[in-house]
Amino acid sequence: MLxxxxxxxxxxxxxxxxxxxxxxxxxxxxxxxxxxPDTVRIRPGGETAVLRYTxxxxxxxxxxxxxxxxxxxxxxxxxxxxxxxxxxxxxxADPSIIHWHGMIVPEAADGHPRFAVGPGGEYVYEFxxxxxxxxYLYHPHPHGLTGAQVYRGLAGLLIVREAQExxxxxxxxxxxxxxxxxxxxxxxxxxxxxxxxxMDDMNGVLGDTVLVNGVAAAAFRVAPRPWRLRLxxxxxxxxxxxxxxxxxxxxxxxxxxxxxxxxxxxxxRPYVVxxxxxxxxxxxxxxxxxxxxxxxxxxxxxxxxxxxxxxxxGGMMGRGMEDMMRGMMGPGQGEALPVARFDxxxxxxxxGEELRLPPAPRSPREGHELHTRLAFRHMRGFLDGRRFKMExxxxxxxxxxxxxxxxxxANDGGPMAMAHxxxxxxxxxxxxxxxxxxxxxxLREGLVDAGFKDTFLIFPGERVRLLVAPTEPGxxxxxxxxxxxxxxxxxxxxxxxxxxxxxxT
Length: 505
Ligand code: C2O
Ligand code: CU
Known about the structure:
The protein is mostly beta strands and 505 residues long. The protein folds into three domains: 133 residues, Cupredoxins -  blue copper proteins (Immunoglobulin-like, Sandwich); 172 residues, Cupredoxins -  blue copper proteins (Immunoglobulin-like), CATH 2.60.40; 132 residues, Cupredoxins -  blue copper proteins (Immunoglobulin-like), CATH 2.60.40. The chain has five helices and 32 strands. Strands 10, 11, 12, 14, 16, 17, 18 and 20 form an eight-stranded mixed beta sheet that branches. Strands 3-4-9-8-6 form a five-stranded mixed beta sheet. The site of copper (II) ion has 6 residues, from loops. This is Multicopper oxidase domain-containing protein. Keywords: Metal-binding, Oxidoreductase.
């Protein structure tokens, strides 16, 4: 089948498509994740009522779970090739189910909303970790409730590690930081405020405070040397334009689903645009800054939108609408939002090793084509004029297994045009081509389309062509990852299946 090109120096690329072995034999690792109400301290003042995942290692490496200091779930530290069983227990008042965002897992382990379990219920997942080293997420996926549950705290990081990472010259775990970026609106008594107005269903729920790893005004002390930074947008709707306060370029080594390849190399950008549930990894050498200095990660305003601290393509609406929205969004908009502060240590600078990115796997044959038109009307999103139905899958939502499908997404312009972060379950894909739409240059410059992705942002008027090659048979889904759009039905099933002998797919 499609094999990795094991090029030079024993560096092997992840094959593409990735194959999953069923966890037929005993798992290496058994974890339990429980979702339940809790209270945490997010900022000075009162405690905040949240929903939270807590975890336990029932069998295997004790370091497979790293507890979080705030409301986020524990970070899952998995190794490529490991067989994992995860027992999910729902101790919430509503149905829920966990989706492993970006992971290629069997249909039954994907966390489709049809698998949601009620209060008191349990769901057992089994899969083998096939994804390459990278930054992934887990979050709830019950239909219509995802936005509310994520907003109240249910989400966590899933990190996949590989033995070769050291050989590639990446900073080790002791020199990496993960920043899970979320915006929240906290009332005076520190209560989380969710939907407050009709606009929230259209734009998605936006906060006025940026939290990193569940805390306000996050700060990190870093030794003057290269660091691996995992930037993760786990916000319901906000799109960030992340930049260094001293205007140094961002050096991108991963754009979503695993590292960039040697052929693509480190990609530098003046800033990176990060949409909900996208991840990006940076290699940042703090040793090039003055010892004892301070630098901040900020989210800049999208100049061309002129609204809401650069939240989303809602700014593609008419000017009058923009002004109205700006008024409604309250203070703090229109300026750079501080995300996190980094204090550079004063010890002698340590250099890193030279980074060698893994080679790219060979692409699958392109045998099939699909087209999906995105539209937003009457406060709701549509995928080819359709909305989500739990089991429904149309003929033109079927993809053949084990070959490449070129899937074209076209985002209609029009009066309600907005940007949508689109996500496909059960696959990692490449962006083949992005047409120039109505999006101003300052939005496009910060996109990283290289590498493998599972979520991509599409601006109004744009057409984006993806190369997708599913390996897991079954019913998966694709949807807008603005959680209010998703809950509103901008989501559809897709089926990955073997081509019938007649050639119908
Ligand atoms: Cu991250 Cu269908 O979700
Ligand atoms: Cu959307």
